[in-house]
Write a structure and sequence with these properties.
Layout (H helix, E strand, L loop, with lengths): L2 H9 L8 E9 L9 E4 L4 E6 L4 E6 L4 E6 L5 E7 L4 E6 L4 E6 L5 E6 L7 E4 L4 E6 L3 E6 L4 E7 L7 E3 L5 E6 L4 E6 L4 E7 L4 E9 L4 E8 L2 E6 L5 E6 L4 E7 L4 E6 L3 E8 L3 E9 L6 E5 L4 E6 L7 E8 L2
Antiparallel strand pairs: 1-28, 2-3, 3-4, 4-5, 6-7, 7-8, 8-9, 10-11, 11-12, 12-13, 14-15, 15-16, 16-17, 18-19, 19-20, 20-21, 22-23, 23-24, 24-25, 26-27, 27-28
């Protein structure tokens, strides 16, 4: 047993102990269909929920533990980000290809920008004060959130799914499931620097990035796998089997854990030994189709979005993380 693995096992929960405490369940009344991604507003302690099948953005107040509002008449919202630089919400719509902007205080519409068909994941770049949106048959759009204008775009060969930004703001790591690749992209030069295959695993949708240890974590739906890739070389450092229909993965730097939400109805927790292996710690049952989630480090919570069933409304499941 390596020294690092021994440290991990010593710090892991004992048998019978849980990594989480199950917290409140917050109903999302009158929300139908698939729920896509979520974002956190630390100023108001709110979660914004892209309710794709409902064509709405749902607003949930975590302090009050309840639903507090809705933005309606969207067009298949898929990605959402809170932009503290301008106190705005950015929502990417897959149906019409627009990125819509709203004032986070009043929820009033401020404007929108056409980025391309199937506008999807959204990331806020705090270093360079811009929003990055994945879209279409292949591209990343760079947007000034104050003027709501396009600053440029990076063409890609196929549709980008989950992607993450290096803290420098100049590099993006991008999942492209259509070609079973992870791309390392130079956002300033507007070009792809490296291409790394995820084969034999495929359908690589969610991604997390650990800049401190130079690791990119990738969730794959084909040969259901969680991969750890070296951020410089793309070398596979670790692989573990996971549950089906993964759609979000999160790395917790404080605990060296991965949180993996899967539409098969499971939230999986893994311990991470950098450059060595994953250790499976725990499974939590969530609900059918509950595949999107949001890790909120400042609250030590993870939020899982569960769509409506025949007997239950759509809801957010709140879990408190133990150190």
């Amino acid at each position: 047993m390596t020294f690092l693995l021994a440290l991990l096992l010593a710090a892991s929960p004992a048998v019978g102990d849980s990594v989480f405490t199950v917290g409140v369940t917050i109903p999302l009344e009158n929300v139908k269909g698939r729920i896509d991604h979520l974002a956190f507003d630390p100023k108001r302690q709110r979660v914004y929920v892209a309710a794709l099948g409902n064509n709405s953005l749902e607003i949930v107040d975590l302090r009050q533990g309840k639903w507090v509002g809705r933005i309606e008449e969207l067009h298949e919202p898929q990605g959402v980000a809170y932009v503290p630089y301008v106190d705005r919400i950015a929502v990417a719509n897959g149906g019409d290809g627009y990125c819509d902007f709203y004032d986070a205080g009043s929820l009033q519409a401020l404007g929108h920008l056409k980025v391309g068909s199937d506008a999807d994941n959204v990331r806020w770049d705090p270093k360079l004060n811009r929003v990055v949106v994945g879209f279409g048959e292949g591209g990343l759009a760079l947007i000034d959130p104050r003027d709501m204008r396009e600053l440029g775009r990076v063409p890609l060969r196929s549709h980008p799914e989950g992607f993450q930004l290096d803290p420098s703001g100049h590099i993006a790591f991008v999942n492209v499931p259509g070609t079973s690749e992870v791309l390392k992209v130079d956002l300033e030069a507007r070009k792809v620097m490296r291409r790394w295959s995820t084969s034999p695993s495929g359908d690589n949708y969610p991604m997390a990035f650990d800049p401190a240890h130079g690791c990119v974590y990738v969730g794959c739906r084909t040969r259901t796998s969680l991969l750890a890739l070296n951020a410089d070389s793309g070398k596979l450092q670790a692989r573990s089997g996971i549950a089906g229909d993964v759609d979000d993965v999160w790395y917790d730097v404080k605990t060296s854990r991965m949180y993996v939400s899967c539409g098969s109805g499971v939230l999986e927790i893994f311990g991470v030994v950098q450059g060595a292996d994953f250790q499976h710690l725990e499974d939590l049952k969530t609900g059918p189709g509950a595949r999107t989630s949001l890790f909120i480090p400042e609250r030590s919570e993870i939020v899982v979005a569960a769509p409506a069933t025949e007997t239950l409304p759509a809801r957010l499941l709140i879990y408190r993380i133990h150190p």
